[in-house]
Amino acid sequence: MPDLISHIATGYLFFPSFNHRAWFGLFVIGVCLPDLATRPFYILFPDLFWYVMPMHTPVGIVLLALGLSGLFVAGQRNQVFMLLMAGSALHLFIDLWQKHVHGGYTIFFPFSWDIYEFGYIWPHETLYFLPLWLSIAVLIILWQKRKNKI
Question: Contact 16/140 with Cβ under 8 angstroms?
Fold first, then answer.
């Protein structure tokens, strides 16, 4: 959960416009999508790890975003797809900064099973940064609300 909160708070830093809440909501769903598509399954059913982990790769995210955007009306599908992809790309980029005892991320799946990561922060260390990310996100929200009132 702290990892998802960190991803959402980081989404506030990178989303270009806060004027349309529904679009921002889709961006936030995109930021959470790689973890939501994989973690519940391999935590509850560890044997499914290698079956769901491709959904935490760029190819898997493209497939998920295409499927989800297909649920929207035809005129909105492209924008929905782009917002989900932008959020998911941010998620994957942030994940690459983590380091792991075993492995990392297979970002070139299905072309390669090689594992990549920048390896600067341990996954549990996001707990230490959580107050900072939440504070920054709250400040941005308050600033944006103040800006919209003027």
Answer: no
| Cα three-residue angle 78-1-139, rounded to 5 degrees | 75
Q: Residues 96, 32, 86, CA angle at the centre, nearest 5°? A: 70
Place 150 in a pLDDT band, splitting at 50, 70 and 90. low
State how far the Cα of 100 lies from the Cα of 113, in Å rounded to an integer: 16
CB atoms within 10 A of CB 143: 11
- Sequence-separated (6 or more) residues with CB below 8 Å from residue 37: 52, 55, 56, 60, 64
Sign of CA dihedral 125, 129, 133, 134: positive
Mean pLDDT of 36-60: 89
